[in-house]
Write a structure and sequence with these properties.
- The complex is a heterodimer.
- Chain A is mainly beta.
- Chain A folds into three domains: 266 residues, no CATH class; 109 residues, Single Sheet (N-terminal domain of TfIIb), CATH 2.20.25; 214 residues, Neuraminidase (6 Propeller), CATH 2.120.10.
- Chain A is 13% helix and 35% strand.
- In chain A, the strands form eight sheets. In chain A, strands 5, 6, 9, 10, 11 and 12 form a six-stranded antiparallel sheet that branches. In chain A, strands 1-20-21-22-23 form a five-stranded antiparallel sheet, with no helix packed on it.
- The longest helix of chain A is centred in the first third of the chain and has 25 residues.
- The radius of gyration of chain A is 30 Å and the shape is globular.
- Chain B is mostly helical.
- Chain B has two domains: 86 residues, no CATH class; 93 residues, Arc Repressor Mutant, subunit A.
- In chain B, helix 7 packs across helix 9 and helix 8 packs across helix 9.
- Chain B is globular.
- Classes of the chains: A mainly beta, B mainly alpha.
- Chains A and B meet through helix 1, helix 2 and helix 3 of A and helix 1, helix 2, helix 4, helix 5 and helix 6 of B.
């Protein structure tokens, strides 16, 4: 159990002193920035972008309402069949962003493309991944294959049609030679631009680009499907040298081919920005074609399938937009997600829970009862916080026990154990096992992300027994990561990171014995946010280069067990809460409850944008707070209802 | 031309420079400032409510002033949201470095380099709070509302931000002798 310390509310800051006055004047006296040509160009496009966003909001709302009535599944299922004619070139309707350096995204692009299934003439392209040499990288499942399915859940990085873009570099095709419509032929090839230009309106009236093309080594027929083994799926041609586009690939071909044409988007998180973010395949179309003397004849053409709707008179209606799932199992296998956003729209108000009649009120108003110990003697873990007199900031925190008989009984003052400037105590953890133990952190600065810190511990039933677990000498040159403490199996866990050095030095999770023995361990490098459960400590793993979260796993005392892998390393995984059967986490504005049994669906709910302030998952009940100061309550998997109350 | 388009045109034509300056104080560099303003304008004007209702009831000049204030507020919220999404060490590390700026020992704090350098010594959250407090003249409750945090948190950020500003080399000489560290 962890918590954070929140400063008491107050009025205005103290009146401005001369420094603040002067600084205020300096801020407001800053000369205006000269408008650059690049800004002028971007500003000129604003009305068009805003108009589209406004249109998308309206149509998106309508689509959402329809989906609520008919069911999202039905709405999605209608997408492919609704496309009866090839759409006009999207690039003519949507602006193309600046191209990305090829070397940055070539492999990523291929992965996104190849992970997306497509269907052609009874075949479903699945399990199409960039793999190691000699490994299976693609399977075209035939009609006889037991896994011949078409998955309509196209990955799309949370983008709406209004902020999706095509550019020529976002279109491509993969060609798979067939001896006949359902048999494998010779090696797969990619076409050069000249040849594909003759291909006319397939798939988007664009010349397919050779960047993301396959040069597969071999394929074979297995289990009713066409299997493509690959070792050259990610060659990145030199963008500055068009002649390299066709190097190694035939400029003329003949025969019968299965062709998968695709489009993908980039920069889905911001309209018009050239910055890179996730890319995702949004549409694909497949065909069986015959090529003779440079002339391509379409023998069979599947409906276009994907996350972008066919344009209507008023533009794209957004009904087909899909949301990419933010994480998978640690082994890369996908999870099933059940979203409860519809339920939150129908949430009913309930009475707030009654105040705990067993929660006493201390006589000393500075004493806060933090947590009741699981004992029968009415003993509470408590703290008394003294504020600074000048600005009422929390400054000195004293921990101890409280009972109605003895009131607050502070443990030994930690300043007597390790003296320093005044310290405050923002984080603590309680272990209710017998005997109950507590640990808390103290910092000598209100800002806890830098500077020395101490961790102390005490036994709940002990007498005046505060003891130092970790001191500044143990964490020299490191800063507190500022998340939380966790207790598991007699040890306290925390996260810290180097104060100096390159960005390759990243956060670590460390632990120490609650007995105070000097056996501090570094449990995991590249990890942060320890949260204790009954069988381990859950941590968020981060990429060593970008420091972005990349997954969640567990330290169980027997090493690290990976649990989830985030599909978008740039996303922000914030808090984690663990119960006996599942782990809850939020990514952006969505809360996910992931059962430890990953064969079961993930329960998720998207809350109002930027409204989530906290959530807690305890005893199979999820509660969260919205910006509107409402507390929502749900019991994932047990009930379809979501309720709320006004605290 | 719709009313909102007229308003957007006025904001962009007459206030881009000032808003880009505000964005640079938030983000620390011109390129990010442009991105921030771009996003804020889209976010502000794409909402068919609030600012448009607010602006349509005013005369043009008043409406523009209020729209600019709204955009500035949106820039702050976007900036703080981006920071919350990417609160990672590699972003914080540079902020703990001492700003490279020679102190200006004469006159008021009016050199833009001093101010920019000092602002960049703050964390993104501190910087946002400081700007909302001392540039936009918002109260603590108003700042708490804008960036969706408790008032206690805002006070802490303001306190820590000011402490860091007081110790910033660029601004040190502007402190009274008895207040210098």
């Amino acid at each position: 159990m962890t918590d954070k310390y929140f400063a008491p509310l107050g009025d205005e800051p103290t009146p401005l002193d001369s420094f603040e006055d002067e600084f205020t004047g300096a801020l407001r006296a800053q000369p205006d920035t000269a408008v650059t040509e690049s800004w002028a160009a971007r500003a000129a496009s604003l009305p068009r972008l805003i108009r589209r966003r406004r249109t998308a909001r309206v149509t998106g709302s309508i689509a959402a309402s329809v989906a609520l009535v008919l069911g999202a599944t039905l709405a999605v299922a209608q997408i492919p069949t609704s496309v009866t004619t090839p759409p006009p070139p999207p690039a003519n309707l949507l602006p193309a962003p600046e191209g990305q350096p090829l070397e940055m995204n070539c492999t990523t692009t291929l992965t996104d493309v190849l992970e997306a299934p497509a269907a052609v003439n009874g075949f479903a392209l699945t399990d199409f991944l960039v793999g190691d040499a000699g490994q299976v990288s693609a399977v075209l499942n035939g009609p006889d294959s037991t896994s011949a399915t078409v998955d309509e859940q196209w990955p799309l990085a949370g983008a709406t049609p209004a902020n999706q873009y095509y550019d020529p570099a976002g279109l491509g095709a993969l060609w798979f030679p067939l001896d006949a419509a359902d048999t494998a032929g010779s090696d797969a090839v990619a076409l050069d631009p000249t040849t594909t230009a003759e291909f006319g309106t397939f798939p988007f009236s664009h010349t397919t680009h050779p960047r993301a093309m396959s040069n597969s080594e071999k394929r074979s027929v297995q289990g009713g499907g066409l299997q493509v083994d690959n070792e050259l799926l990610a060659p990145c041609p030199d963008t500055d040298d068009p002649s390299s586009w066709t190097e190694g690939w035939p400029t003329t071909i003949s025969g019968t081919y299965a062709v998968v044409g695709f489009g993908y988007v980039r920069s889905p998180d911001s309209e018009g920005r050239s910055g890179s973010s996730a890319q995702a395949l949004v549409a694909a179309r497949t065909a069986i074609v015959s090529v003779t003397d440079g002339t391509v004849t379409v023998l069979s053409l599947s409906p276009r399938s994907g996350a972008i709707d066919a344009p209507t008179d008023t533009g794209y209606d957004g009904a087909a937009a899909q949301q990419v799932e933010p994480f998978t199992r640690a082994d890369g296998k996908s999870l099933t997600f059940e979203n409860q956003t519809a339920a939150i729209n129908m949430a009913t108000e309930i009475d707030p829970p009654a105040a705990d009649p067993d929660r006493p009120v201390p006589n000393d108003r500075e004493v806060e009862l933090v947590q009741k110990f699981d004992t029968d003697n009415g003993l509470w873990f408590a703290r008394r916080t003294t504020e600074r007199t000048d600005d009422l900031q929390p400054w000195h925190t004293q921990w101890g026990t409280w009972s109605s008989a003895d009131q607050f009984e502070p443990w030994r003052d930690t300043q007597e154990i390790s003296a320093s400037d005044a310290r405050w105590s923002p984080y603590y953890a309680v272990d209710q096992s017998n005997p109950a133990q507590v640990a808390w952190l103290e910092s000598d600065g209100i800002q806890t992300t830098a500077g020395p810190f101490w961790i102390f511990a005490a036994d709940a039933l002990g007498d005046n027994n505060s003891r130092l677990i970790v001191g500044p000498d143990d964490t020299a040159d490191n800063a507190l990561d500022g998340h939380q403490l966790a207790i598991f199996n007699g040890r306290v866990y925390w996260d810290e990171r180097p104060l100096t050095g390159s960005s390759s030095e990243h956060s670590m999770v460390r632990s120490a014995s609650l007995t105070g023995d000097p056996d501090i361990r570094t449990e995991a490098l590249g990890a942060e946010r320890p949260v204790a459960s009954a069988d381990g400590v859950w941590v968020t793993t981060i990429a060593p280069d970008t420091q972005s979260p990349i997954g969640i796993g567990k330290l169980s005392g027997y090493g690290f067990e990976p649990f989830l892998t985030f599909t978008d390393p740039g996303q922000d995984a914030t808090d984690v809460s663990v119960s006996e059967s599942a782990i809850a986490l939020n990514i952006g504005d969505t809360i996910y409850v992931v059962p430890f049994d990953l064969d079961q669906p993930v329960w998720s709910v998207a809350v109002e944008e930027n409204s989530l302030t906290w959530f807690n998952y305890q005893e199979d009940q999820l509660t969260w707070n919205s910006e509107g100061k409402l507390v929502y309550v749900a019991t994932p998997w047990r009930s379809d209802e979501i309720n709320y109350y006004r605290p | 031309m719709a009313r909102w388009e007229q308003l957007l045109e006025a904001v962009v034509a007459d206030h881009s420079s000032a808003l880009l300056t505000y964005g640079r104080m938030l983000t620390g560099n011109p390129a990010d400032s442009e991105d921030l303003l771009h996003d804020a304008l889209i976010k502000s004007f794409a909402k068919p409510s609030h600012m448009f209702r607010l602006a349509s009831d005013q005369d043009e000049a008043t409406g523009t002033v209020k729209a600019v204030a709204y955009v500035r507020r949106t820039m702050a919220t976007i900036h703080i949201d981006q920071h919350r999404r990417r609160t990672r060490w590699f972003e914080r590390a540079p902020l703990l470095a001492v700003a490279e700026s020679a102190p200006d020992s004469t006159g008021p704090i009016n050199d833009r380099h001093d101010v920019y350098a000092a602002l960049q010594s703050l964390s993104p959250t501190q910087r946002t709070c400081v700007l909302l407090r001392y540039y936009d003249d918002l109260t603590v409750p108003q700042i708490a509302d804008v960036i969706n945090a408790s008032q206690g948190t805002i006070k802490r950020h303001l306190h820590d931000g000011l402490e860091r500003l007081r110790s910033a080399p660029a601004l040190l000489d502007h402190l009274p002798q008895e207040q210098r560290p």
